[in-house]
């Protein structure tokens, strides 16, 4: 089996690379390293069956030979990143998705789009099931990512309807684990980095907003299973257990033995107040649900951060 992973040097993508290689697949990574890191995949450089192509998926790409599966994960994925690279984010969601879909059509490959829970925006339905159409501000600062992914979903399902391309759409909810960048702005690496240094922990708003957090090993298993099913409507992947941001901060402080205080900051525009997946579809179709609890997963990430400091 030959797999192409766009964005394969990123956080989730690099863990998928490891999993596919360990399962005996050949893997091609395409990444321009705008937010990905070569160090995430460097341990695979000398392995047979692995190839890294430093290219932008927004440009047409020629790959020799067959490809069985394309996983399109390329995109800035944290608010810090997509606010820094708004045009690049939208180009990747549009041109990048188009180019990867055209490659899948040329190669006769299955195509998996890594979409996001951000398509639900600041939701008026809780928890969020795949039938919910979302509440997104199309001209807000987050729209470059939210609307970009919504466009990518529309384009992907159109390739299924017009060309009968075997497409899969997954909506990834908050995921965490080793290889997250300390400064990428996402809540878990930010809290851990601050707590380990005993610096004030940054709480946006009151901290009563909620999130759910899925450990990377569980997410990789869900993506692998999703890539194997013949199902074309979106599938939520995430951990349905919900925490307030203040609860998360307290758990991180305890696990880090930290003396950090809290620093309250204004809530960013259009920041979701609640976020929790309904994973009934994933449970039924994929026989999948997360197994790793938050404290266990956080302990793993904290140990990894300590080694990097």
Topology of helices and strands:
Layout: E1 2-6, H1 11-22, E2 26-30, E3 50-53, E4 69-72, H2 79-84, H3 86-107, E5 110-116, H4 143-163, E6 167-172, E7 175-176, H5 187-196, E8 201-204, E9 210-212, E10 214-215, H6 216-226, E11 235-237, E12 242-244, H7 245-256, E13 262-265, H8 280-286, H9 294-308
Parallel strand pairs: 1-2, 1-4, 2-3, 4-5, 5-6, 6-11, 7-10, 8-13
Antiparallel strand pairs: 9-12
Tell me the series of helices and strands, N- to C-terminal: EHEEEHHEHEEHEEEHEEHEHH
Number of strands: 13
| Global morphology | globular
In CATH terms, the superfamily of the domain at 2-175 and 216-239 and 277-291 is NAD(P)-binding Rossmann-like Domain
State Rg.
Answer: 19 Å
Overall helicity: 25-40%
CATH architecture of the domain at 2-175 and 216-239 and 277-291: 3-Layer(aba) Sandwich
- Estimate the strand proportion: 15-25%
**Mean pLDDT over the full residue set:** 96
Content-based structural category: alpha/beta
Looking at the structure, the CATH topology of the domain at 2-175 and 216-239 and 277-291 is: Rossmann fold
CATH uppermost class of the domain at 2-175 and 216-239 and 277-291: Alpha Beta
| Uncertain parts | none
Instruction: Quote the distance from N terminus to C terminus.
Output: 38 Å
Number of helices in the DSSP assignment:
9
């Amino acid at each position: 089996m030959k797999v192409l992973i766009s964005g394969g040097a990123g956080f989730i993508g690099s863990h998928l690379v490891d999993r596919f290689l360990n399962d005996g697949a050949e893997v091609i990574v395409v990444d321009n390293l705008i937010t990905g890191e070569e160090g995430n995949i460097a341990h695979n450089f000398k392995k047979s069956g692995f190839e890294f192509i430093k290219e932008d998926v927004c440009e047409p790409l020629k790959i020799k030979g067959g490809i069985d599966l394309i996983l399109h994960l390329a995109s800035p994925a944290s608010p810090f990143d997509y606010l820094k690279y708004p045009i690049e984010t939208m180009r990747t969601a549009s041109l990048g998705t188009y180019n990867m879909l055209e490659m899948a059509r040329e190669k006769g490959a299955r195509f998996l789009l890594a979409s996001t829970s951000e398509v639900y925006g600041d939701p008026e339905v809780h928890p969020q099931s795949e039938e919910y159409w979302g509440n997104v501000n199309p001209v807000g600062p987050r729209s470059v990512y939210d609307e970009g992914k919504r466009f990518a979903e529309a384009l992907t399902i159109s390739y299924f309807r017009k060309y009968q391309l075997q497409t899969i759409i997954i909506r990834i909810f908050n995921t965490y684990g080793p290889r997250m960048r300390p400064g990428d702005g996402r809540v878990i690496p930010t809290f851990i980095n601050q707590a380990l240094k005993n610096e004030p922990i940054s709480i946006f708003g009151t901290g009563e907003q909620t999130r759910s957090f899925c450990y990377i090993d569980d997410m990789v298993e869900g993506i692998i299973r999703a890539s194997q099913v013949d199902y074309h409507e979106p599938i939520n992947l995430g951990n349905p257990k919900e925490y307030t941001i203040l609860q998360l901060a307290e758990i991180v402080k305890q696990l880090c033995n930290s003396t950090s205080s809290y620093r309250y900051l204004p809530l960013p525009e259009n920041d979701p107040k609640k976020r929790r997946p309904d994973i009934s579809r994933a449970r039924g179709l994929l026989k999948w649900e997360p197994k790793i609890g938050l404290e266990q997963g956080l302990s793993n990430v904290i140990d990894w951060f300590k080694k990097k400091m």
